UniProtKB/TrEMBL annotation:
PROSITE patterns for the chain: ABC_TRANSPORTER_1, ABC_TRANSPORTER_2
PANTHER family: SPERMIDINE/PUTRESCINE IMPORT ATP-BINDING PROTEIN POTA, SPERMIDINE_PUTRESCINE IMPORT ATP-BINDING PROTEIN POTA
Cited InterPro entries: AAA+_ATPase, ABC_SmlMolc_Importer, ABC_transporter-like_ATP-bd, ABC_transporter-like_CS, P-loop_NTPase
Origin: domain of life: Bacteria
SMART domains xrefs: AAA
Protein name: ABC transporter
UniProt entry tagged with the keyword GTP-binding: no
Length: 249
């Protein structure tokens, strides 16, 4: 596989504490990387560093082998990424306009814009909601809009920070299926932060476990789950899929 992103000696220090301390991490094109760890392990900080949204980090960042400044990354590089968070940041406008906004910023022609919006609304099964105002959407509907907007931009890398954690179990399950299909069809590189092992198992092919800002284990998802190292096993053994399912119902 072709290396897409590489970080080296990436650190983030706050109040004398290491929030992040990664000696090296690479992400290959087409890879789906999962990031797990206990609360406060640095998962979201790592995600923001990887998508160039953490200017307080120090270290080296390479995209396709080119060294990129962390404090002032080129706008054109940032536009090759998309991000979806736990709480969708939707504008007070219709679903159609929310999906359109990024495309308009990039001066997408009207015909192409309409085609892309229609395609991705249908892909996430929300075509019937195109005219609905964002403030009237359910949590699952809002996250579908968030993902449709991200994929419409055709990002080279999609960053997901626990996008399903606030959803009930049936809604989450269906949306993950839609996401998996979209990833497979576009071959998009994905980085997913999640507390849910079922999401990680279903979506990712490589997994890293963080603890206190550092990687304690990395490898193929099935291998890490089947054979966790001591520090990783403490976290993984504490995850109960039945409790997770019940908490989301």
């Amino acid at each position: 596989m072709t290396e897409l992103i590489r970080i080296e000696q990436m650190k983030r220090v706050a109040n004398g504490n290491n929030i992040l301390d990664i000696s090296q991490l690479t992400i290959d094109r087409g890879e789906i990387l999962g990031i797990m760890g206990p609360n406060g392990a640095g998962k979201s900080t790592l995600l923001k560093a990887l998508c160039l949204l953490e200017p307080k980090c120090i270290g080296s960042y390479f995209f396709q082998g080119q060294n990129t400044p962390l404090q002032k990354p080129p706008l054109q590089l940032r536009r090759r990424f998309a991000i979806a968070l736990q709480q969708p940041l939707l504008f007070n406008a219709s679903v159609h306009k929310n999906v359109a906004i990024g495309l308009k910023i990039r001066n997408t022609g009207n015909k192409e814009l309409k085609n892309k919006i229609a395609f991705w609304l249908d892909a996430f099964e929300i075509g019937h909601l195109a005219a609905k105002q964002a403030q009237h959407l359910s949590g699952g509907e809002a996250q579908r809009v968030n993902l449709a907007r991200a994929f419409a931009l055709e990002p080279e890398v999609l960053f997901l920070d626990e996008p399903f954690s606030a959803l009930d179990y049936p809604t989450k399950r269906k949306l993950i299926q839609n996401l998996k299909k979209a990833i497979d069809e576009t071959n998009t590189t994905v980085v997913l932060v999640s507390h849910d092992l079922t999401e990680i198992e279903y979506l990712t092919n490589r997994l890293i476990i963080l603890k206190e800002g550092a990687v304690v284990q990395a490898g193929a998802t099935v291998e890490v789950i089947a054979h966790p190292h001591q520090q990783a096993s403490t976290f993984l053994s504490g995850w109960n899929p039945l409790m997770e399912k019940q908490s989301n119902q």
